[in-house]
Amino acid sequence: MELEIHGIKFNVTTLEQGEFKTLKVLPCPEDEELFRQSVSVIDIQSLQILWSKHYYGINHRSNMFNVLFNTFKETLDNVEDLNGYFTLQVLYTDMVLRFGTILEEFAGMCSALREHSINRTNIAQYFLSYSDPMGFYNSMSAGALRSIKQMFRLPQSIGNLNRIFRDLTDVERDVLWNAVNKSTQMIQEIFNDIAQAITRNQGDSVTYYDMYNKLKHGFAPIYPFVTPVELTFENIPKDMDNSLTIKHFLMENVSLMHNKLPGQRTNISQDQQQENNITITMDNVSIENAENMVRIVESITYLYKHLVKTYLSYSQGSKKFSLLTRKEMLTPEEENTIINVIDNQERYLI
Which strand (E) or helix (H) includes residue 149? Predict the structure, then answer.
């Protein structure tokens, strides 16, 4: 018996057992053979993860992030009272948390797929146990063209092209190799943009990743503007309105109370450490910071989708590689040369 629920087909077999019954349900029966073939290349658990990530996973994370952002933007435009500032800070910190999970997941998936490409490691096991996202982004920002080619299953040398395609002319080979390098450089530019946004440039600067790590370990924001503790603001312009000063420092910034590790402490927080174990970090709750997170999430989503699609294609026996290039990177003639080669199944060596 076939059912369709919200656009998804199911094959359903009913086994009756007295007053009870057992249902055997096969979702998406139209993909059963393709999935079975793919399992011969990638194990079933890893394939289940990739299949899910491709069709739903990263899209849903990004969509939920955008829901938070749109609510944040709407609230920012209509702050009228104290509750408005409370709401803004909660929305901002929730955005940071979701942003951080996207950063961690992307780093884990990139690393797992690269390891599979090189060593045929189990993608699911590597991905689920991954724990060094900052190390990944630091390595990407340090220049990792070879790693990117391995990760995205791109040829690592011009000679590799002769092992993928038959009867390449010198012109075709040069055009393809040029496009591979430009695609790799474009991916690296995106990685560098992500890395610069989340890594610390100075010992006392706050990054999204710092914020995320503090928040995910249970450090909730505090609200100094409702706490009867004396605060000091220095170097304030004389003509600046006092109420605007208070709003800026206490309401337009989110304050996090946490305990930094010794290597993370600045000279100021080191002095504070001598008195107690607590440090307070502030980050501006602004549309600029929020929009920067949105931009990075969009970049990650773009790469994530392409990466997972590449490995699903590989699991299905395709030798075709995909390039990420902008229109201005290639001439029309070069584009035609590339398409005539990579879209022609007869050109691939079996």
Answer: helix 145-151
pLDDT in tens, 130-146: 988 888 988 887 768 99
Residues 6+ positions from 165 with CB-CB distance below 8 Å: 172, 176, 341, 347, 348, 349
Which among 96, 185, 193 is positioned nearest to 137, based on CA atoms?
193
Which residues does residue 9 pair with via DSSP β-bridges, in sequence order? 4
DSSP, collapsed to helix, strand or coil, labels residue 258 as strand
Distances (CA, A) of 20 to 17, 25, 151, 160: 5, 16, 50, 60
Strands (E), the chain: 2-5, 8-17, 20-27, 221-222, 253-258, 279-284
What's the start-to-end Cα distance of the chain, in Å? 39
CB 196 within 8 A of CB 141: yes
Helix H or strand E segment including 93: helix 82-119
Closest among 329, 315, 344 to 153, alpha carbons compared? 315
Question: Is 307 in contact with 151 (CB distance < 8 Å)?
Answer: yes
Instruction: Of 226, 178, 202, give the one whose Cα is nearest residue 323.
Output: 178
CB of 238 within 8 A of CB of 244?
no
What are the pLDDT digits (tens) for 168-206? Answer: 999 999 999 999 999 999 999 999 888 888 876 655 556
The owner of tokens 């605007």 is: 244
CA pair distance 337, 32, nearest whole angstrom: 35
Question: Does the structure show a pLDDT above 50 at 264?
Answer: no
Provide, for the chain, the percentages of residues in helix, strand and coil under a 3-state DSSP scheme, each rounded to the nearest 5: 65, 10, 25
Q: Is 282 helix (H, G, I), strand (E, B) or coil?
A: strand
Strand-pair partners of 27: 10
Average pLDDT over the chain, rounded to an integer? 86
